[in-house]
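Translate structure to sequence.
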């Protein structure tokens, strides 16, 4: 048994800020109302309006709260969405209309989408997606970035941080200073750090782990790596500050397996990993933070 959730809402499923959403009773199909099963395997499908594009993921739903909206009398259920990986849509689900379906007995389709991407991911990725230990999150993120083919990446040892980033890398014309966090509400805490990271990039050279990187002519970005929602946070002069999720990096990891993607293509993909999020706001200087 598993769920299928289909929508054409552009802010679902990988773009939800708090990873939660609300459905009304009328959106639930096939007798699904009231059959809330915690951590049920779910196929999430998003149709793009005015195009034939379709995205899909496999994951789970949890933390169900039934109730009524503030206005109107429609019954609702609020729940949390956890995405594990992108997947291909099984052909028998491709034409489903928007709604929430309960599927009983069809394990073939679920096995198909489960295997389509997860089988190619290294074992530590499962831990990366679930760990509550910030040290593990930082450690495994570094190795995921290495597996993309970013050989110039340099980590900053945890004991030496004290406000420093978790790592830096340069790939072709892209230079990135990154910081990993498991916190969802990191804005104020990271404000001064983001300003410092921008200042590092603005100098034109970065010294880390005994290596000097020349980034003067590069496209410069600061990444806050999370398990939340990929988005563009702001610009500090010519430096783009972004939240980049583990799922977005995994998308690039899987795209990297394509025989058509060379190092230039990889750099371009990394530059675009949050383009689906909100547009950045302009900030005049690093002293105004992120």
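Result:
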């Amino acid at each position: 048994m598993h769920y299928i959730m289909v929508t054409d809402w552009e802010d679902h499923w990988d773009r939800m800020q708090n990873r939660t959403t609300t459905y009304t009773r009328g959106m639930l199909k096939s007798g699904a109302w009231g059959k809330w099963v915690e951590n049920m395997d779910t196929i999430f499908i998003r149709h793009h309006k005015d195009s034939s594009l379709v995205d899909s993921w496999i994951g789970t739903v949890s933390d169900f709260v039934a109730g009524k909206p503030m206005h109107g009398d429609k019954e609702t259920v609020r729940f949390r969405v956890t995405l594990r990986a992108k997947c291909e849509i099984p052909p028998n689900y491709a034409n489903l209309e928007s709604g929430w379906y309960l599927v009983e007995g069809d394990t073939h389709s679920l096995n198909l989408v489960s295997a389509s991407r997860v089988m190619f991911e290294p074992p530590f990725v499962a831990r990366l997606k679930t760990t509550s230990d910030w040290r593990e999150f930082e450690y495994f993120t570094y190795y995921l970035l290495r597996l993309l083919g970013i050989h110039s990446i340099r980590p900053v040892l945890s004991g030496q941080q004290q406000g420093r980033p978790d790592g830096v890398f340069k790939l072709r014309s892209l230079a990135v200073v990154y910081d990993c966090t498991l916190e969802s509400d990191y804005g104020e805490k990271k404000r001064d750090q983001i300003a410092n990271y921008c200042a590092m990039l603005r100098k034109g050279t970065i010294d880390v782990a005994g290596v000097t990187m020349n980034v003067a002519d590069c496209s410069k970005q600061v990444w806050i790596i999370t398990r939340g929602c990929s988005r563009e946070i702001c610009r500090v002069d010519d430096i783009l500050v972004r939240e980049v999720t583990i799922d977005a990096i995994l998308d690039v990891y899987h795209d990297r397996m394509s025989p058509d993607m060379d190092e230039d293509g990889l750099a371009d993909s990394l530059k675009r990993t949050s383009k689906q999020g909100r547009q950045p706001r302009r900030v005049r200087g690093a002293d105004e933070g992120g």
